[in-house]
Amino acid sequence: MSASIITSTSVLVSKTTMPLHITTALRSSIVVPSTLDVYESAVNFFLQFCSYHLLSGTTSHEVDYYLSQYMESLYQNSISNGKQHAANTLFGIIRRCPQYKLCFPLSRQSLKGFQKLIQSVSHTPLTYYTCVAMAAVMSKSGYFHRAIALLLMFHCYLRVGEMESLLISDIALPEQNRFGSNNILSALRIGKAKTGRNQTVSITDTHIHILLQSIINNRSPTEKLFYFSASSFTRTFHQSLSSLGLSHIKFVPHSCRHGGATHDHIQGSSIEQIMLRGRWKSNESARTYIQSLRAVMLTVDIPIHIHTMGETCAKDLSTNLFTLALSQL
Q1: What is the mean pLDDT of residues 238-254?
Q2: What is the CA radius of gyration of the chain?
Q3: What residues contact 228, with CB distance under 8 A and at least 6 apart?
Q4: Do residues 125 and 296 lie in contact, with contact meaning Cβ atoms separated by under 8 Å?
Q5: CA distance 244 to 219
Q6: Considering only CA atoms, which of 249, 264, 250 is closest in space to residue 302?
Q7: What is the H or E stretch that residue 201 is in?
Q8: Bridge partner list, 192
Q9: What is d(CA 210, CA 178) in angstroms, rounded to the nearest whole number?
Q10: What predicted TM-score, i.e. pTM, was given to this entire model?
């Protein structure tokens, strides 16, 4: 947060008279911990802003006025990620005081203006053959498990945090017959997702099923599926891009989720199927999301030799990745 907005981070939040102190364990439990931390941090910055400027209020109208001014300050001072911070502050206040949910007309207008003036930029979606080429590079570099994680994230639209949290017990293989059906090769359970708990995604790719089976045999159900951290995976992700000469393209781990959803839509999956697979709650948001990503994908220029490399490896994906991994032993 810029010093021009808050010049003293030592200002005590309690010095600000605001009706934003109400919080309970029950209401907090409906928001995932990571989101709750972001909301709380954003609200505390706002309260520090009010303390520094000697602002106090006891009604929703006063809080609304101060919050709209705070958003204006974020915009005028070009605060990094200011638009998202403004949204987090508004939603954080509403989470603390849900009785204000239909209030804050000034702040809502300010946030809409912020969103109009500062357009969101979607993460560039990863193409399938680029993803396979990256997995090949990881396997050849001794990161076989990370290659599998990359492919799994693409296939199941996983966020990096969801991938990191997977346990062996979260993977259901067909021989375990947990579903009572032979129509699903395998599936994974996401214990804590952004949109809720205990969600599942089917694994319909035979090669990914084989790769997963190779790394979970004879392991305890309580073990983590992947031992590495999200930050370590991200470093390997960017190293593989660099090895392929693709560092100039703004791919990030979340590009797997974007790329997988876009790839499946291009292959003929309906918005409803993608929405279910991607755990989106709103059909409209999923439709806008996919259409936007398809447009972004048209701007991605992957060199033909990378495309060919991925296409060749994908023809017998599991065997080729095993071979590359064994070549390093």
Answers
A1: 94
A2: 23
A3: 145, 146, 149, 236
A4: yes
A5: 33
A6: 249
A7: strand 196-203
A8: 197
A9: 18
A10: 0.70
